[in-house]
Amino acid sequence: MDNLTPRGSMGIERIAVLGAGQMGNGIAQVAACAGYEVVMIDIKQDYLDNGLAAIENSLSRVVKKERMTQQDADVAISLISTSTEKTSASDADLVVEAIPEIPELKFSTFTELDSICKPEAILASNTSSISINAIADATNRPDRVIGMHFMNPVPVMKLVEIINGQDTSSEVTELVVEASERMGKVPLACNDSPGFVSNRILCPMINEAILALEEGVAEPEAIDGIMKLGMNHPIGPLALADLIGLDTILHIMNVLHEGFEGNPKYAPSDLLKDMVSEGKLGRKSGEGFYSYS
Ligand code: CAA
Fold first, then answer.
1. Which of 179, 268, 285, 287 is deepest in the core (most CB within 10 A)?
2. Which atom of ligand 1 is least distant from the CA of 67?
3. How confident is the model over 70-86, as pLDDT tens digits?
4. What is 8-191's CATH number, 1.10.3720.10, 3.40.50.720, 3.40.50.150, 3.40.50.300?
5. How close is the Cα of 156 to the center of ligand 1, in Å?
6. Ligand 1 atom having least distance to the Cα of 243
7. Is any ligand 1 atom within 6 A of the Cβ of residue 206?
8. pLDDT in tens, 150-179
9. Mean pLDDT of the chain
10. CATH of segment(s) 198-277
11. In the annotation, is 161 catalytic?
């Protein structure tokens, strides 16, 4: 690609969100609440219906707290359309991808998006662990690829971790910072590196809590209580692992372990590996460090 081709100045008005899961529907919600036209795309209508139901449920909580009028919530919902075709992203100014964390799936999806989307469109990934440079390499527009890492639950959490790849242009960073602010978030930038900043710090802390449990240092309630009351964390590390998903924590620990050349400080604990292989994934499976039946 010729990086020197002038693309003209652009503003972001239309956003495509790829993936209607927990993160995708949250991103679609905050984008629509900011007045963007949003198309939420997933492979099955069922997933889209569930995503829309989650948005309606979340908005009704906000309306009930009188932080938004029902009328504004209705406007936000009306700004969201859904589609099972990636081609619906063709007129988007910004695409935010929030599909499963499978590297090959991300790479092929970005190659496809690159051919579908207009040349000036920004392709952002909500990845929590996959290299932005590797994702950008799957496209012919590495200067317009960036990480836009929202936190769970998206409607509540203020941060968007902005990850600049080695080729991301400063214009793209500025546009994505501006869009994140319009969504009511606080964007903070970092460079591409294993786990970025958030998960490089968070996941080893959670893994350490799991090691403490595995070694019988304390019961889950005590470990979480100590971190909540002692460090002012809103929830303890084990409850947070259940919220994020133990499979996701294990995946990120493996990315850190490999990315930092086998440094043992990033080795996932045996208990974490065992629980994932037993299907104890936290809230989404009904059982993790706590029970959710
Ligand atoms: N939509 C709208 N509002 C919501 C909501 C949603 N989906 N979920 C919670 N809320 C609101 C509630 O209505 C409530 O509002 P008020 O303060 O006005 O009462 C508020 O958020 C708190 O909710 P709850 O009272 O139900 O429960 P809580 O006090 O336990 O808070 C929480 C829930 C905000 C999630 C809190 O537990 C928390 O901050 N947890 C830590 C979250 C965290 O660390 N997230 C980052 C995870 S890491 C990540 O995402 C990145 C990665 O790559 C792994």
1. 179
2. 18
3. 999 999 999 999 999 99
4. 3.40.50.720
5. 6
6. 47
7. no
8. 999 999 999 999 999 999 999 999 999 999
9. 95
10. 1.10.1040.50
11. yes
